[in-house]
Design goal:
Blueprint lengths: L2 H18 L6 H8 L3 H7 L9 E3 L7 E3 L12 H16 L6 H13 L5 H15 L7 H16 L1 E8 L5 E14 L4 E9 L3 E6 L3 E10 L8 H4 L14 E7 L1 H8 L8 E4 L5 E7 L6 H6 L4 E5 L1 H17 L7 H4 L1 E4 L6 E3 H16 L5 H10 L7 H10 L22 H11 L3 H16 L16 H6 L3 H4 L1 H7 L1 H10 L4 H12 L5
Length: 518
């Protein structure tokens, strides 16, 4: 190594040390940390010829301090590293809507430094810098000043006082210890993650909503176990939660299946191929609400299956969109049919069928003092017919959907399960209500699941628990979640019927009163 190379290496090491110690270091401390003689450091850091960006503190301590606003050391890159820089800078240039002279300056320096290595990429880096400086970009001096202050505070390990504005316009004062600054491409913005007081907890603030920031003299230390990658691991973008992540299940149409498979949308995602060409996409997400813009972007090519509140949010949005654009939507409960008479095409709405069956069954069961039993079985026996698969099957059999149309279901009678959904729902509602509730759950679920086939064998000669297999049948086959969301009025009536101690009354009636009747 020649003298010039040795000097460059030493200066680089010194810069890194001073960068890590914003309070400054004496020449003796630098020499000790680098394992060299103090005279060696003095040779490179002569008081009268200090390198650019390094200066002596004015307090007389002889400490050398790094000017964080000064140019840092030179760096060298391979061609492929240059390409990585190009891709990163393009994201910065195209996903930021505010003028940022620091970003533009950094891109220009990189562009000029890489000119000899690759003229083409260098040119585009310089163009990206121009994009950052375009007059069309939003000038926000407050945002820029806040970002500069947060950067300096983060670097120096100093707490910062901030004024943060909420969506409703109210402004609150906090003391913040910045742990990490995270860009957010979806919102063309950036957030600061840090310890906020109040409430003495880790919080994320959108930098655009910070109206003022001032560095304090109070130091802080980022906990050794804080890892932004771990902290944001379950976030869709930036939203985190103190609760366990929620499983999101989406069903994508075959026409977008390839596009969905091409990208890793979330670290926890899992894709299941379906026989019909659809795909099920699953992921554990901290706040599913943050996914709304992304899900909206797929339009009718995606269906939210889980969680239910997320699906309900999309259903509500569809209704609002229809109203906004003047589209007359037929309510799902009105378009669902239970039967269609072949001779004249007369259709019976599914909700009417379930409600009327419940009235008749309630009347019959009242003769033995168990009207609720009849009502529940009537309400739920055909609940599974609310699924789009069964509706497609029913209309396909009647010739209302041709084989070349979306929604056509090629199935024989009995192949599309419509009786298990109701059995699963009543079992879900009652099985957790003690010994009596579990018994009633089994009684009702068995009757509903068997209403076409005759009572099923709960335990086969082989030892297989056929009842358990039916009750735990996968939702993709029973479509319970879809059915209960399309006709929620049925579940509401079920919940009202199950109020009080219905299972206790049923248990007593079966085992105490009916056996004594002559």
């Amino acid at each position: 190594m020649n003298r010039a190379q040795e000097k460059a290496l030493r200066l680089s090491q010194i810069e890194q040390l001073l960068w890590a110690h914003p309070e400054g270091l004496t020449r003796a401390e630098i020499a000790r940390r680098l394992g060299v003689n103090r005279s060696t450091i003095t040779k490179y850091l002569d008081a009268g010829h200090l390198p650019p960006g390094i200066y002596e503190a004015e307090d007389g301590s002889k400490r050398l301090v790094m000017d964080k606003d000064a140019d840092l050391t030179k760096a060298s890159f391979s061609l492929h590293e240059v390409m990585a820089i190009h891709l990163a800078t393009r994201l910065l240039a195209t996903r930021s809507d505010k003028q940022n002279p620091h970003a533009a300056s950094a891109l220009r320096k990189l562009g000029k430094a890489l000119e000899r290595l690759d003229k083409n990429i260098s040119t585009h880096l310089l163009r990206s810098a121009d994009v950052m400086d375009e007059e069309g970009n939003f000038r926000d001096p407050v945002y820029l000043k806040v970002l500069e202050t947060l950067t300096e505070a983060w670097s120096a390990g100093r707490k910062v006082k901030v004024q943060h504005q909420m969506e409703n316009g109210r402004v609150f004062d906090y003391t913040l210890s910045p742990y990490f600054i995270e860009p957010y491409a979806v919102g063309q913005t950036a957030h600061v993650i840090g310890w906020r007081q109040p409430p003495a907890a880790l919080r994320t603030l959108k930098i655009e909503r910070i109206r003022a920031a001032e560095i304090t003299r109070d130091p802080y230390t980022i906990p050794a176990d804080f890892d932004p990658g771990v902290y944001l691991r379950n976030a869709w973008g930036i939203w985190t939660s103190d609760q366990a992540p929620v499983e999101v299940v989406l069903r994508f149409h075959p026409r977008v299946a390839m596009r969905v498979r091409e990208t890793r949308w979330h670290p926890s995602q899992h894709i299941e191929e379906q026989p019909d060409g659809y795909i099920l996409w699953r992921a554990q997400v901290a706040e599913p609400q943050e996914m709304l813009p992304w899900v909206r972007g797929w339009g009718a090519d995606v269906e939210v299956l889980e969680p239910r509140p997320f699906r309900k949010a999309l259903e509500d949005e569809v209704q609002k969109l229809a109203k906004c654009y003047g589209v007359n939507l037929v309510k799902p409960r009105d378009e669902l049919i239970a039967h269609r008479r072949e001779r004249d095409g007369m259709e019976q709405p599914l909700v009417d069928h379930l409600a009327q069956t419940a009235i008749l069954a309630e009347r019959f069961a009242a003769k033995v003092g168990l009207p609720e039993v009849g009502k529940i079985m009537g309400l739920l026996h055909d609940l599974g017919k609310a699924s789009s698969e069964f509706q497609g099957y029913l209309r396909s059999r009647q010739g209302l959907i041709s084989p070349d149309e979306d929604g056509y279901v090629d199935a024989k009678r009995g192949e599309v399960d419509h009786s298990t959904a109701g059995a699963q729902l009543v079992y879900e509602k009652l099985a957790s209500r003690g010994r009596e509730g579990r018994f009633v759950a089994q009684f009702l679920a068995l009757a509903i699941a068997s209403h076409h086939s005759g009572l099923i064998d709960c335990l086969k000669p082989s030892g297989e628990n056929n009842f358990e297999r039916r009750i735990t049948k996968d939702d993709k086959n029973t479509r319970l979640m879809e059915a209960r969301s399309r006709i929620p009025v049925i579940e509401q009536q079920l919940d009202e019927t199950l109020l009080g101690h219905f299972e206790t009354h049923f248990f007593r009636k079966i085992f105490e009163e009916i056996p004594t009747i002559d």
